[in-house]
Amino acid sequence: MRMFTVHLPSDAGSELPPAAVADRLVLVADGFSTFAFVLAPVWMLVNRLWLALAAYVVAMSVLELAFAAFGTHQLWQALIGLGVHLVIGFEADELRRWNLARAGWRPVAVVAGRSEEDGEARFLEGWRARSVTSAPSPAAAG
Predict the structure, then answer these.
(1) Residue 7 burial by Cβ neighbours in a 10 Å radius (0-12, 13-18, 19+)
(2) What is the chain's pLDDT, residue by residue, as a tens digit (142 residues)?
(3) pTM over 0.85, yes/no
(4) What sign results for the dihedral spanned by CA atoms 115, 116, 117, 122?
(5) Using CB atoms within 10 A of its CB, is residue 135 exposed (0-12), middle (13-18) or buried (19+)?
């Protein structure tokens, strides 16, 4: 089972019906991202992480300049580059959450599922149950 954090835009209230919520939610999986590890800049572009991409380009440029200035052996350059990419692979989910928070999205739940679709279905079941129990009953209204 994988863990996912569920994010909704700040303007999405808890009174929305499950169908409307399903169209607006974003799930972010916890765990290592192989795509982010292997192709960090492409992963950042695909996920629209512009500030992270800019920081990556600046950091890698500074590292290249430092390697050239100090005459660092190519083995050390490769190991340091591998280390940077390992950190990106392990922190990819946090980068996505940070980017969503900057854009005004808020985390609303943590769900477990075998896949993203399974996690989304579990979240929507809980959302549906919560909206049914929180709705006023006809007997209480009248």
Answers:
(1) buried
(2) 999 999 998 876 666 666 667 778 999 999 999 999 999 999 999 999 999 999 999 999 999 999 999 999 999 999 999 999 999 999 999 999 999 999 999 999 999 999 999 999 999 888 777 765 555 544 444 4
(3) no
(4) positive
(5) exposed
